[in-house]
Write a structure and sequence with these properties.
Helix content: 40-55%
Oligomer: single chain
Structural class: alpha/beta
Radius of gyration: 23 Å
CATH class of the largest domain: Alpha Beta
Distance between the termini: 65 Å
Number of strands: 10
Length: 322
């Protein structure tokens, strides 16, 4: 009888402990948002703007850390190996999940298995941007020039396997044109090369809006299905080639073992933050970034869709980085 009472007491204690764990408020301490790129890029900007809003909503501090390298791989591994308690999170660009697995075949982390998608945060378009001296005024004239140019026009990218590279290859296939790829070590030197005339064109983010508006680069077309709010006068590529779409998205990720109650709390907090008008304005001012809200299932579907798209391009080009 005493043994049965002891077993019952242990069971009741475990149940009470579980209930207490489920009702522990989150967050109870500062949250760390990890950015995979140096300060100033889209993931870092979003991390800082989102962090400020989360701090306001939770009355807890939010710290931003930059762990740079391997197109987000260094930051992803750092977060995946952290304590899965919701206090170390990754604010990362899509390419870490949709391109890296097919480029880095010997990566030390499997992002699809070791990180869980929490929420989409923001999205942006690429803009096909030309050197100001290139003798074209619009997208149609660029395609016509590219078709007759010999040798081919050169285009800049942020490196082999970058989205800048793969999207241009997708455009080449759609438009039936040939272009010479010149990879650079990042978007900034690629932009410098295009402004300076070393290359004719590149796909740039709207963070280069000031260069386009000042005339140092010429915006020819954007890559969304709808026109960019930053450049409403610039047509989309899909207006010429239907269904052509290539958007940048930034998402929030956590270690795979994050408890469900913390995951749901995080999703609710992020949703509140993204619906705030001041956050929307700050994202737009920071580089034409738009809040991007979708369901957890929609987020997973988005990752799978983009993985299929980019993996096919990488396979066709036979690109590998290790």
């Amino acid at each position: 009888m005493k043994f049965q009472i002891l077993i019952l007491f242990i069971a009741l204690f475990a149940q009470v402990s579980t209930c207490q764990a489920q009702t522990i408020p989150y967050p109870r301490q500062a949250i760390k948002l990890v950015s995979p790129i140096p300060p100033g890029g889209a993931p870092d900007l979003i991390a800082r703007i989102l962090g400020a809003k989360l701090a306001e909503l939770t009355s807890q501090g939010v710290v931003i850390e930059n762990h740079v390298g391997s197109n987000g791989g260094v930051a992803a591994e750092y977060v995946a190996r952290s304590n899965p308690d919701g206090y170390t999170l990754l604010v990362c660009m899509d390419s870490t999940f949709t391109i890296n697995p097919y480029l880095y075949r010997h990566s030390s982390i499997d992002v699809n298995k070791e990180l869980v998608p929490v929420a989409t945060l923001g999205s942006n378009q690429f803009v096909l941007s030309a050197n100001a001296q290139l003798p074209v005024k619009n997208f149609a004239e660029f395609i016509a020039l590219a078709k007759k140019s010999s040798p081919p026009l050169a285009y800049a990218s942020a490196g082999n396997g970058s989205q800048h590279h793969l999207i241009m290859e997708l455009l080449k296939a759609k438009a039936g044109i040939d272009l010479l790829h010149i990879p650079y070590k990042g978007g900034s030197p690629a932009t410098t090369a295009t402004v300076g005339g070393e290359t004719a064109v590149m796909f740039a983010g709207t963070s280069n809006a000031s260069l386009m508006k000042s005339g140092k680069l010429r915006a020819l077309a954007s890559t969304g299905l709808q026109r960019s709010k930053v450049f409403p006068q610039v047509p989309t590529i899909s207006e010429t080639f239907p269904d052509f779409e290539a958007k940048i998205w930034i998402g929030l990720f956590a270690p795979q073992a994050l408890p469900n109650e913390v995951l749901e709390r995080l999703r609710n907090l992020v949703s509140q933050a993204l619906m705030a008008e001041d956050l929307t304005q700050n994202l737009f001012k920071a580089g034409g970034i738009e809040p991007f809200i979708t369901t957890p299932a929609g987020f997973k579907d988005l990752i799978a869709k983009d993985q299929q798209k980019y993996s096919q391009i990488i396979k066709a080009l036979n690109i590998t980085l290790d």
